[in-house]
Amino acid sequence: SSLPPNLEIRRLEDGAEGVFAVTQLVKRTQFGPFESRRVAKWEKESAFPLKVFQKDGHPVCFDTSNEDDCNWMMLVRPAAEAEHQNLTAYQHGSDVFFTTSRDIPPGTELRVWYAAFYAKKMDKPMLKQACSSAHGTWRPLVPGPPSLVPCRGDGKGS
């Protein structure tokens, strides 16, 4: 019931649910705050765990185990690969928000991952970005491991 009118929940082939754009969403569209019961510790970590870090350093965990305690944002599935990610999760104040990281056309599923600084705080990896250019996949010019050039430490190179 908290779902914005420009989004819809659809059942996927595997039986899971996902959140999809009904209309075009422009880059930097903000959703939130994420609503859920807040606890000191999770009983079981979810597929996309969220916390807020207080000024004293103590984290507060978002308990998403009960759909009735959360808003629609709990139904956004995490991105498994960088090219699937179109939302970024980050902490602002004592809340978590999702922001679109690119324009999202109608019919596209929203997929979220952590912003860089927030991923570090959450001890989660960044999604690996596939390197590509107009000419296809990026490759190093010289095959094999990079060569290391020792430095003297005097600012003049080797």
TrEMBL record:
It comes from the Eukaryota. PROSITE patterns: SET (PS50280). Residues 5-115 form the SET domain. InterPro entries: PRDM15_PR-SET, SET_dom, SET_dom_sf. CDD domains: PR-SET_PRDM15 (cd19199). This is PR domain zinc finger protein 15. It comes from Saguinus oedipus (Cotton-top tamarin).
